[in-house]
Amino acid sequence: MQQTSCKNQSVTGVFSLAAAFLIWGVAPIYWKQLGDIPAFEIILHRIIWSFFLLIPVMTGYRLWPEYWQVLKSGRKMMVLAGTTVVLAFNWFVFVWAINNDQVLQTSLGYYINPLVNVLLGMVFLKEQLNRRQGLAVFLATVGVLILTFYYGRFPWISLTLAFSFGFYGLIRKIVPVSAITGLFIELSLLAVPAGAWLVYLYRTESGAFLRTGMTMDLFCLGASLVTALPLIFFTTGTRLVHLKTVGFMQYIAPSCTFLLAVFVFHEPLSTVFLLTFVLIWTALAIYSYDSVQSWRHSTDSDRTA
Fold first, then answer.
1. Helices 74-98 and 103-124, interaxial angle, to 10°?
2. Please, which residues have CB within 8 angstroms of residue 256's CB and are 6 or more apart in sequence?
3. Enclosing H/E stretch for 282
4. Which long-range contacts (CB under 8 A, 24 or more apart) does 141-150 make?
5. 208 CB contacts (<8 Å, ≥6 apart)?
6. How far does Cα 104 stand from its chain's mean position?
7. What is the three-class DSSP state of 269?
8. Phi, psi for 133 (deg, rounded to 5)
C-alpha cells in the first residue's frame, strides 16, 4: 500500500513538473501577444497582478507564518531585496528579447543555465569540478565564443539570462524560504512602486491598460497566471520526485522555446548558431551523464552503509 502511494506521488510530481516546464517553454507565445506594449510596462503588470494572485495561494498553502517569520529577519530581507532586483532584471530581459524577435537567444540562455550553476558553485561555493563537468563547461564556453567571433557581437541576451537566473538561485540558497513565500516577498517589495508607476501611466494616458481594449487588458491580467501557475506546479513537483528528475526535466522549457523560435516565429537558424546549440547540447549530455553517475554512486553508498 505504501509503495503504491509513493508511486502515485511520483507520477503526480512528474506531471506537475512537466506542466511547469511546458508553461515556461511556451510562454513566449503569450508574451508575443503583448508585443505592442513596452517590456517595462509588461513587467509592471506581471508584478502587480502576480502579487494579488499569490495572496489566496499563500492562504491555501498556509504559508503566512513563514512569511511573517521572514519579515522579522533583517538579514533574510536584505538577501531577498537583492534577489528581487535580479529577478526583475531577468524578467525584463526575457520579455524584451521575446518581443524583439530574439527567442533563440532566450532558449540558448536557459540551456546554458545549468552549466552556469556549476561554474558559480565552483567560484562562490568552492565546489570542485570533476573532469566531465569541466569538459561540459569548456564546450559551452567554446560555443559562446564561436557565436561571439562569428557575429562580431556578444550573445548578451543568452548570457544575461543564464547568469542572472544562476545568481538568483545562488543568492536564494542563503535564505531557507519556500519558493512561493520567497516570490511573494519579492513581489511585495516591488508591488508598491509597480502599482504607483501603472497609476502614473494611466493618468498621463501613456499606458496600455484600460485604454487599448478588453482583450489587451485580459492579457495584462493573465500575466499573473503565466508567472505564478508554473511556479506552483514546480514547487509541488519538486517535493514529490528526486532532484535528478528535476534536473532532466528542466530541459523541456528551453527545448520548447527552441522549437517555437524556429518553426513558429521563423527566426533564422544559421549554421553557426546551430553549431553553438550542438556544442551546448553535447555539454548538457555530458553534464547529465555525470549527474546520473554521481546519484547512482551516492545511492550505492547509502545501501552499503
1. 150
2. 21, 22, 24, 25, 26
3. helix 271-304
4. 142/279, 143/275, 143/276, 143/277, 143/278, 143/279, 143/280, 143/283, 144/112, 144/276, 146/272, 146/275, 146/276, 146/279, 147/272, 147/273, 147/276, 150/272
5. 36, 37, 41, 216, 220
6. 16
7. coil
8. -65, -40
Number of Cα atoms under 13 Å in the Cβ half of residue 208: 22
Average pLDDT, the chain: 87
The 10s digit of each residue's pLDDT in 21-73 is 999 999 999 999 998 899 999 999 999 999 999 999 999 999 999 999 999 99
- The residues, ordered by sequence, that sit 6+ positions from 73 with a Cβ below 8 Å of its Cβ are none
CB 201 within 8 A of CB 207: yes
Could you tell me the three cell numbers for 102?
Answer: 530574439
Residues 253-277: what's their mean pLDDT? 91
CA distance 10 to 238: 10
Q: How confident is the model at residue 93 (pLDDT cuts 50, 70, 90)?
A: very high
SS (H, E, C) 188-242: HHHHHHHHHHHHHHHHCCCCCCCCCCHHHHHHHHHHHHHHHHHHHHHHHHHCCCC
15 vs 21: CA distance, rounded Å: 10
What pTM did the predictor assign? 0.87
**Strand, coil or helix: what is 80?**
helix
